[in-house]
Write a structure and sequence with these properties.
With about 400 residues, the protein is an alpha/beta fold. It has 15 helices and 8 strands. Strands 2-3-4-1-5 form a 5-stranded parallel β-sheet, with helices on both faces. The protein has a 3-stranded antiparallel β-sheet with strand order 6-8-7.
Length: about 400
């Protein structure tokens, strides 16, 4: 059994929307941004599902992870990844060329691409632009070129990174708007900072305003079944039932790493003490969930009274929270923190929560909590605080 749980159906659907869009999916050519909470399997999906599916359809894919070096300038990382790929395309019998030759049943693996510019100059003053470089790649490959930037929100943290995003938009427009272009340039950005990733498509000042923004499709019961089947095949026992394991996975926010850690703890306790797995696993999962949420709620506490009051107003709302900057909301915050809160104080405090990825902007004046299970834990605690004491 494979060590990685594959999701070919979702990958095939995205590939179709990106490379062969119908009338309703044309917006995918403007850019696709995928956001989701941390540790839910986004990078694994990109590397093991989406990239192979795109390449199987003949696309050239460049992948760069902006978390690979958090101290490096995001623009430098992207330029470096592009230069590495173009260098490989110039090299006869390279991985890209051999794969293209196999897909097209043509002997192009022995040839290298010829570029009318020096690769070393890419990204340097006076050197070729990304639009020029990508256009030459598309014209010689006669196929689509896909650039995937993982943790794309880091590009917003520097002036060079923001300029890079506009350069990528310029490349998209220069290539995709040509009559009879032999291929398209497609940009995919993913990130765990939901607020910042969504801003890239919702704010008019951003390069990819209007592009498609979707939530990452989290793993579900089929993943849980796969894990249990693999553990069974490897002789690991005793194991919980599928129903209990699936509940535990949801309790842990559909996070694979936490789920596997919970199962390891459950197996260890069940083997050592003979405890029922269906009793042990829910306890382990609930404890881990509470501990993870405690870290996030402590961060809110450390941001001060007003930020905490704003967070709690959003967390207490069923669905989307609105009116958090209103005079009425300022009155609520005044009561909550015991001092007068002016309307103009609210936005800076909300920005602190946004920057910390604790809340997410869903639209103009519409907010939500970034991580659903942090919100659930907060609600559970509030319910305990407000419930009447038990009578003897």
């Amino acid at each position: 059994m494979s060590a990685v749980f594959l999701r070919p159906t979702i990958a095939a659907q995205m590939t179709q929307q990106l490379l062969h869009p119908n009338a309703l999916d044309e917006a995918f050519r403007s850019g696709l941004f995928i956001s989701g909470v941390r540790r839910t399997g986004k990078t694994t999906f990109l590397r093991h599902d989406l990239i192979p599916a795109l390449e199987a359809e003949g696309a050239l894919v460049i992948y760069v992870d902006l978390w690979s070096d958090t101290q490096a300038n995001p623009a430098r990382l992207i330029h470096a990844a592009v230069r590495d790929t173009l260098t490989e395309l110039q090299t006869p019998h390279s991985r890209f060329l051999e794969k293209m030759a196999k897909l097209r049943s043509a002997d192009i693996g022995a040839m290298g691409f010829k570029f009318g510019f020096k690769l070393d100059a890419l990204g340097e003053a006076g050197g070729p632009t990304l639009a020029q470089a990508f256009q030459e790649v598309v014209d010689q490959a006669k196929s689509d070129l896909v650039l995937i930037v993982d943790e794309v929100q880091h590009a917003m943290t520097t002036d060079e990174g923001n300029q890079m995003l506009f350069a990528l938009k310029a490349a998209r427009d220069a290539i995709n708007q040509r009559p009879g272009t032999p291929g398209h340039f497609i940009f995919i950005g993913t990130g765990s900072h939901r607020a910042m990733v969504q801003e890239l498509t919702t704010r008019r000042t951003q390069a990819f305003a209007g592009a498609v923004s979707v939530a990452f499709p989290v793993l579900k019961e089929d993943y849980v079944r796969y894990v249990l089947e693999r553990m069974t095949s490897e002789g690991l026992k005793p194991l919980p039932s599928l129903e209990i394991a699936n509940q535990a996975f949801r309790t842990l926010g559909n996070r694979p790493e936490e789920f596997l850690r919970a199962l390891r703890m459950q197996v260890s306790r069940s083997q050592g003490g003979g405890e029922d797995p269906d009793i042990v696993l829910p306890i382990v999962a609930s404890t881990m969930r509470a501990m993870a949420a405690e870290v996030e709620l402590t961060r809110v506490e450390e941001m001060g009274g007003l930020a905490k009051a704003i967070f709690e107003k959003i967390a207490a709302t069923e669905g989307e929270a609105k009116g958090i900057f209103s005079a009425a909301a300022a009155g609520e915050y005044t009561k909550a923190i015991g001092r007068e809160v002016k309307v103009e104080e609210i936005q800076p405090a909300a920005n602190v929560l946004l920057a910390a990825n604790l809340i997410v902007r869903q639209g103009h004046g519409i907010y939500n909590i970034s991580d659903p299970f942090v919100q659930d834990i907060w609600k559970e605690r509030q319910a305990m605080l407000t419930s009447p004491p038990e009578q003897d």
